[in-house]
Amino acid sequence: MFNFPTKNLTPNQMKIADYFNRQAQQALLKTEEEIANDLKISNATVSRFFKVLGYRNYKTFKQAHIHKLSSSPQNKLQQAKETSSIGPMRFQKLLDYLYKTETGLANTYVSRFVHLIKQASTVHIFSFGVTKGLGELLFYRLRRLAIPVELHTEGGSELMETLLHLQPTDTVIFFSFSRLINETKALLHVTEKKSIKTIGLTDQDNLADQYPALLIFLTDRGKPNEFHSMIGPTYLIERLIEALIKETTAETTAEALVALRSELKAFLPR
User: pTM for this one?
Assistant: First the structure.
């Protein structure tokens, strides 16, 4: 499928090439470490493979072959598309959104996200308008992990009062899609002035240039003139939470919740 130039590849590099040709979809979604573990070779061997192919690193290889994820399902669904069935076409687009969101994730950024959440005295989530549902999901997940977290969805004077009380020891998370609204601009003005660590979940790839201090996670929601799906942003939240779970006392928190439910079941039946 990838047409790798196999003539000068080492035996281990041939294993990697075969790995990708046999399971293109799954392989493109995995990290270098996962590929190395699957093939029982070193991470360095996997890294060198992509450089041998002429790519700067694994990330640039994935970006260059992003269409591979969609090509296989596309062939399987081609007959349905030709009969004007909208379902398969929509499903294919959702796969593309998920894949582009996944390939945009850098392990170093995910690790930094975990660090900023764990070291924060309070995590403040700002979600306005259409992003309110995403904010509530993230708030729910973080609270389950016993992270001190607050959710803010108000604008105007109520937002001003919230911004007034933000502290440099806090971590701020915001959602921004399509464009920066005035509430988000005000938020970023305050966090920059107070040197507050700030994380943005967005589909705007120019935000990192405008605000270099931000930790930006990009997600795909479709083209500007298309229906904007929330499947990519939702997936991004779940991926970040999964990374956080590995570094927290999630199991202990869950056990404490079970014990409290038992204690209070007479007052708060499920």
Answer: 0.63
